Amino acid sequence: MYYFAENYFSLKIIFLGTPEFSVASLKAIVDAGFDVVAVVTAPDKPAGRGMHMHESAVKKFAKTKHIPVLQPVKLKDPDFISQLKSYNADLQVVIAFRMLPEAVWNMPPLGTVNLHASLLPDYRGAAPINWAIINGEKETGVCTFFLKHEIDTGDIILSKKVTITETMNAGELHDILMNTGAEVIVETLKSIENNSYTLTSQGTGSDKTAPKIFTKHCRINWNDKGKNIYNLIRGMSPYPGAFTEIDGKILKVYQSEFIPDNNLKIAAGEFESDGKTSLKFACKGGWISLNDVQLAGKKRMMIDELLRGYRITKLK
User: N vs C: which end of the chain shows fewer Cβ within 10 Å?
Assistant: First the structure.
């Protein structure tokens, strides 16, 4: 990695996070020699066909390092607040976790630092990675800031830019930002430890937002511009997946190609297929050719495999 365990720091840190995105930063913090006295993560929940109890990615990692794990159902629970205080942490780090009440984020003397997967103030909200690609951005990044009352509005401590390529999807960008964020969070903690940082105001805000994604956002509108549809598919891949409907069944599209064509002879939303290797839909300004798909009830597959086993009769 990028960090060396021979450097040890005196900061006592509580880490708050849940998904895999958080784990890279937690590992980097531990590897850098910071004293993570406890981890706060989501309660275990049933998942899978057998509905077995599932531990968060952060909890699984914390257990390998023998770090105490707290899993409150309610963050305002007096018992949880009391337990959190007992660790006497100097600083808290929160990455991909729930909204914190002031009693939690304002507890440690040095405050609570958040890592966000965008260059704030752009793309405040729950899904900054997806929306950056959906909106066709060429650049994004990560930044750290101190939490305050309004969500994602604190003064910036550090930031780092990341290029978004023409073919990159949300999953690929997620992994790049996850690892970049791990570097930036360690740099941030070192600067706080040494009191060597300068805060930068986010200013008045931005009209580029990143709200939570719902099913309505995932449906492909074939009347939209081809480039917009192409970006939507990239921005929803691999999760939650952009979709259309064929024969009344949901067809998720994970990878596609936009083919410009200003002389279309069919209406937007209609399709052409050779029945073997090609399935493409008319849209504004050209075609969206499907490459990687998943029909409801079937496994994810390349389009030629789908066409070999499924005869398309109508599109909705």
Answer: C
